[in-house]
Amino acid sequence: MARRTDKPAFTPFSDDTMVQTIGALSIENGTARIAVHGQIEITRDRAGLAQARDLKRAVDAIVRALAAADLPDSVGDEGAEPTSTLRNPFS
User: Fold this and answer.
1) CA-based nearest residue to 65, from 38, 41, 91, 31
2) Strand partners, 24
3) Backbone torsion region of residue 79, taken as left when φ is above 0, otherwise alpha when ψ lies between -120 and 50, otherwise beta
4) pLDDT of 2
5) Where are the domains of the chain?
6) Alpha helix segments (H runs only) across the chain
């Protein structure tokens, strides 16, 4: 029997908008890189087991996406947001 989930599937490297949150841990999707921020406390109970499984699913999906791709040696700054100087509105 398939497990029903209300969360949309986390598809690594598919867009620059999706964020998956597990506890206080955020996994921010990107087309060139995925950022992981925050912390998670996995407790020794059913809630902790659920969080551990969610974390494992996300990491496994990232590994599968990387393993299936023709990867460069490094992305370097490729895909990084361009920077520009803005006028200070308070000056």
Assistant:
1) 31
2) 39
3) left
4) 42
5) 19-67
6) 46-68
| Number of Cβ within a 10 Å radius of residue 22 | 19
pLDDT at residue 4 above 50? no
Phi, psi of 19 (to 5 degrees): -130, 130
Question: Kindly report the CA angle at 41 between 47 and 4, in degrees rounded to 5?
Answer: 35
Q: Which residue has the higher pLDDT, 7 or 15?
A: 15
- The pTM score is 0.72
Tokens of 44: 């020794």
Distance CA 90, CA 43 (A): 47
- CA angle at residue 72 from 71 to 75, to 5 degrees? 110
pLDDT at 21 over 80: yes
Local confidence band at 58 (pLDDT 50, 70, 90 cut-offs): very high
